[in-house]
Structures are given as C-alpha cells and as structure tokens.
Amino acid sequence: MTVASILNNVIGPVMPGCSSSHTAGPYHIARMCRSLMGELPSEVIFSFEPCSSIAEVYHEQGSDLALVMGILGLPLTDSRFKHALELFKSYGVNIRFVIESFPEACHPNSIKIEAKLKDGSDFSAVADSTGGGSVIFRRLNGWQVSMTGDAYYLAVESMREEVIEKLSARGDVTSESRDGRNFFLLTTSYPIESSMLEEIRTARGVTGLWYALPVFFPLRGNRIFTSGAEMVKYSEDHCMTLGEAALEYESALLGMPKDALDAEMDRRLQIMIDSVALGLSDASPAMFLLHPVAKKIMLAEKEGRLAVGGIHTRAAARAMAAMQVNSGQGIVCAAPTGGSAGVIPGVMVTMLEDMNIPRKDVLRSMWAAGAVGWVLATRGTFAAEVCGCQVEIGAAGAMGAGAVVEAAGGTPQQAADAGAVMFQNAMGLVCDLVQAIVEIPCHTRNGSFASQAFICADMILGGYCNSVTLDDTVDAVYASGQMLPLQLRCTSLGGIAVAPSALSMPRLR
User: Fold this and answer.
1) Cα-trace Rg, the chain
2) What sign does the dihedral 498-490-84-68 (CA atoms) show?
3) Under a CB-based contact definition with an 8 Å cutoff, are residues 126 and 104 in contact?
4) Which of 162, 265, 396, 506 has the greatest CB tally within 10 Å of its CB?
C-alpha cells in the first residue's frame, strides 16, 4: 500500500501538457538523475522498452522534451519547454532517445538512463513513471534501490562497511553487498549538510557517492488514516468535513502547517481557473488534431441554441477549455493526471461562477477531491498504461463528485459514496488515444465526466444508497484495469485509435 500525499500524488503536478505519466513523470526522473550526477553530463541515452506505452507515445506526448528539461536542470514550466530539443546542444550535452530492450524494464513507462560524465565516468539508472507524475527509481549504477522523489537520498558505494554508522544516524539505510563491494542508500526527510557529504566522499574505501534532492514535498510525518473507511471515520469522529480531514492528513504527513498547505492548494486552484479562462479565450493554444471548441459551446449555451444547456453543459465546456490548454502544452494542474486535467477545473470554476460558492469553500472542496483520489493513489494507480482511462478521467470524475458533495454541505460518507458511484460508472473505460495524442477521446471524456460529477453528487445527496464502499470499488477498478489488454492501455493500438477515420485525421501542427 502506497504512502500517498494529496499534493504530491493527487492534485498536481503543475506542468505543461499533455500527460503526467509521459511528461511530468519523465521530467521528475531526469531531474533526479541530474541531481544524482551532480553535474551536466556530456552524453545521455534514454532507452524505452519496445512496444511499451512510453515507447509508443514518447514523442507525441512530450516525454523527450521533459527528459531534456530535467537533465538540463530547467523548470518544467519554463517557457522554452516546447523548444527543448533545440536547446541541449547549446549546453554541450548530446542527448539521444532509443527504443531498445533492457532486462530491468518492469512497467509500461520504464526508462533506462545511461550517461557519460565530463570526467569520463559512467552513470546509469532505471526508473518508472508510475502515473500522475509519480516515479520510482529501481536501479542506480547497477544497484537495487527504491527512490520515489519525496525524500533526500544519499547513495554510497564503498569497499568498507564502516560508513553505514554515519548514515544510520541520519535516517533509514538499506544495504547490498556484491563482490567485496557495499552499497548503502540513506533515505531522509531533511537535507544533508555539504560538510557531511564531503566527509563521506573522502572517507577510506568510498568509491562512489550520489546525492538526490526531492522533487516532491518530503514526507516528514505519519498518516492519520490508511483507507477510505478510516478516512470517513476520522472525519466523523472529529466532526470534520471530508475536505477538512484531508487537510489534517496532509499536514500530519508532510509536517507542514495547514495555512501553508492551503496556500499551495489555492495556487493550484488559480492555475485551474487560469487554464479555463485561457481555453475560453481567443488565445486558446493550437492543438494537434482538434480546433478549439469550448468557447463555441459556451456561446451556444448562452444563446439558447442547445437541446438542454445549463450548469452541466457549462461544466463540460470549461473542462474542455482546460484540456485545450493541456493539449497545446500550456500550463495546467494535473488532477490527478494531465490526461484528466480538465474535469476538476470544470467542476471548480462552475461552482465558483454558476453556484456562487465562496472561494474558501471551493478550496475545501479541492481537498475533498484530493481525499477521494487519495484512496486510489494509496490502493492502486493513476496510470492509464496500467489500468486504462478509468484511473485517469474516471478518477477525476470521482474526485469531482466528492468535491460537489463537500461544497453542497454533504457528509464525509456521502462524499465518499459519490466518488464510489462515479468510479463504478467509469469501470472498464479504456485508454485509446487517437494518434497517441491526448485529444481524442480525452477532451469529450473530460467534459462528460465534469458534468457527471454533479449528477453523481445529486444522486447521493438525493437519497441513493451506495452499497459498495469506496475502498472496495477502487480495488475492483484496479483489478479490472489490469485485465485490460495492452492494446487498450495507452498504446494507441486498439479501440477508436485504430479506426480508419481516426488514423486518417490530418495533423494541424
């Protein structure tokens, strides 16, 4: 069971589109590699397993751009992101991408990194982008590791064992021995002083040292609940809403004050608001396959030219607006992924503008949305490469339903039930990207699920009794997702992705 943070793993990261698994995750991998190397390398090769999800879509979804930005040590949101492939030569580094099998690959988004440093030494790592921007390093210079980016990591290779005493005083240490060599990995929530790093680097018998800074908020505390059932019970026992309990959880896990966490969540809410506004403007960025349509839908609704219209249509159009920005590689907040980055903005902006809910209450609904998504982050995955679109746009819809219940004054149990019902309606949803681009059917799904979030919330608030718990539903979603064939899990090898009309669509850019 994963120790998940709402800000680290559910509401975020803030990123340029279009995919958290294939854009933000690779960036975090490369950024950690740059940190471990300690310098800009002279050469880097990124390898992808043939037929894997990332091998099929890495160029279309900006994995190559993100990997370059990470290795160069540039922010993911840097305005030069779109031109990253033109940047690295000016930095004096040669970067290549190859599709080649490697035995350590164990995930649809496994990446092997091989680098040559300027002093002639070699660096290698194997890491997986596990969904929603999360990562795990499994190999470092041939040694087995487990690094998820939410801590400080110090890896030491030594011919002697004495070094473990210095490391053990600072945190958890794992070790491995082979051919007279020892490898130690220290995981700690706090930075290590440069004096200690130098002392270990120059110690007798030390043959290698690698230090990585976190790419997420470090986990400095403990969980106050570990399941959806415990989450609801904690909320009820402490007379809290689900959103309030989620904030309490995050404060305990990250060891951060609640006002600072609220400020960060509010920043992410503003990014969502801005993405909707940009998508509804004449400046909506150009996409690969689709022309911007969100503004047209909003205008048609306003003029009464639609069959029904109303709040559900406006929520859908706003979700599509945010997805236009995502597809145009503008800045969005993944929630929980880039491919589902429209649902929560569509829901939140609709509550702000159509329901006139105060921003502070919408902010608390953001935490409630995070709480519903946290259950999947803890028990499953946000990677469509593993479980299909049900764990991306389906998860966003469930999160949105929980958020609407929170804003409407519903109980924690009702918010969890609304999320469960939405998950149940999304179960089995495949990921079948047309031409490996996060546009079709992603845009209309985001719009549809933003609308459905309000419907599922209303059904629960109106008296529907959900009999299958959120925990059980999430477990069923995860299990059923793993039964999907490879062709229906973000490889563009099945579903509508292989329809003749989809394959023949011209690229707009």
Assistant:
1) 23
2) negative
3) yes
4) 396
